[in-house]
Amino acid sequence: SHWCNVAYWEHRTRVGRLYTVYEQSVSIFYDLPQGNGFCLGQLNLENRSETVRRTRSKIGYGILLSKEPDGVWAYNRSDHPIFVNSPTLDIPNCRTLIVRKVMPGYSIKVFDYEKSCLLQHTADLDYADGPYDPNSVRISFAKGWGPCYSRQFITSCPCWLEILLSN
């Protein structure tokens, strides 16, 4: 069975279908002649803004997402940073959204299974950033969001992914 679904978004619009992941790892990239995985360059959307076009051109080799025994890891294969938010990266009971910047060539554990189990028992918080899913990870290409950036919400980012993890 699958371990996650990936949704690709441009600002507030989901582009294409959910991409279901069955293998232990998946490449999510812009456009390569040879490559297997989720090719974002193949997704069509009419009337793209210039900002989205510029950001899409920066995705390049994108990310490698892999399911490991301790959690889910993202390796930044692009030439530009990625920005990540996940319930297991946040500080428990912190009222501020934490977005991590991951430079090219680096990886980060975007979801920790053990920490997730502990968080399931904490109280639900009000999130100003839209619906909250304790089993999802959000990754933006080249543009950050949150308290430290001009974009307060991920829906203001030109190109981003929603990783929906299976329980």
Structure at a glance:
This protein is mostly beta strands. 8% of the residues lie in helices and 36% in strands.
How is this structure best described in words?
By secondary structure, the protein is mainly beta. Helices cover 8% and strands 36% of the residues. It has a single domain (4-165), classed as Sandwich (Tumour Suppressor Smad4). It has helices at 50-56, 113-119; strands spanning 4-10, 13-21, 25-29, 38-39, 63-68, 71-76, 82-85, 100-102, 107-112, 136-141, 160-165. The strands form two sheets. The protein has a six-stranded antiparallel β-sheet with strand order 2-1-11-10-7-8. It starts with a strand and ends with a strand.
Low-confidence residue ranges: none
Question: Per CATH, what is the topology?
Answer: Tumour Suppressor Smad4
What percentage of amino acids are in beta strands? 35-45%
Helix content: under 10%
Question: Looking across the biggest beta sheet, what order are the strands in?
Answer: 2-1-11-10-7-8
Our measurement of the CA-to-CA distance between the termini, rounded to an integer number of angstroms, reads: 11 Å
The CATH C-level class name: Mainly Beta
Main sheet makeup: 6 strands, antiparallel
Structural domain count: 1
Architecture per CATH nomenclature, i.e. the level-2 architecture: Sandwich
Helical element count? 2
Query: Helix and strand string, N-terminal first?
Result: EEEEHEEEEEHEE
The rough form would be described as globular
What is the averaged pLDDT score? 88
Query: How many β strands by DSSP?
Result: 11
